[in-house]
Design a protein that fits this description.
With about 190 residues, the protein is of the alpha+beta class. About 25% of the residues lie in helices and about 30% in strands. It is built from six helices and ten strands, in the order ββββαββββαβαβααα. It starts with 10 loop residues before the first strand and ends in a 9-residue tail after the last helix.
Length: about 190
């Protein structure tokens, strides 16, 4: 079921339903960078059982789970937000979503009450592909491309995200969305 959708920064990648790699099983990845040198993004639907203020020393109290962003550099923290220029050096990632920015300024804005949990998500690690790797994986059908909506990041329950995006794509994807996680449950 390979697709001819052009892969660009700002798109979603949904793991095909039979992907066995536990890092990416039913994963929804937001692609933040896609160039000849490689690609990178964050898994949006794998929350960890730890809050960001429990993980980072000297971080202000903040009721926000950290998500598993992917298997690369899991000792690093990244964040996606919709705060734009409020956080200097943040990079537009598409659809009014920004990546990173000045970490000290972010901590100040959180401790001042300006930034609320519903406008930012934190990730441990990221998903990365070497030059040409993602295009090859798309060609063999490992990923299903979809358009990103900021609500997917900030409003949809992580457990429901994979199925919801497939249902919105329609056609055959609606059928895939209803498949049980373990086909033997059928």
């Amino acid at each position: 079921m390979s697709e001819s959708i052009e892969i660009t920064k700002g798109k979603l990648l949904l793991a095909e339903p039979f992907m066995l790699d536990p890092n990416f099983k039913r994963a929804v990845v937001f692609l933040c960078d896609h160039q000849e040198e490689g690609s990178m993004g964050f898994i949006l639907n794998k929350p960890l059982k730890i809050k960001v203020d429990e993980l980072i020393t000297d971080f202000p109290e903040f009721d926000s789970n950290v998500y598993y962003g992917g298997p690369v550099a899991t000792d690093t923290i990244h964040y996606l937000h919709r705060l734009g220029d409020l956080i200097e050096d943040s990079v537009p990632a598409g659809n009014n979503i920004y990546w990173g920015g000045n970490f000290e300024k972010l901590k100040f804005l959180i401790s001042s009450g300006v930034v609320k949990p519903g406008s930012i998500k934190f990730f441990a690690g990221y998903s990365g592909w070497s030059p040409g790797q993602l295009n090859e994986e798309m060609f063999i059908g490992s990923w299903i491309a979809a358009d990103m909506d900021p609500n997917y990041l900030f409003s949809v329950r992580p457990r429901e995200l994979w199925s919801k995006v497939l249902r919105i794509k329609g056609d055959i994807y609606s059928v895939l969305a209803g498949m049980p996680d373990n086909i033997s449950w059928n």
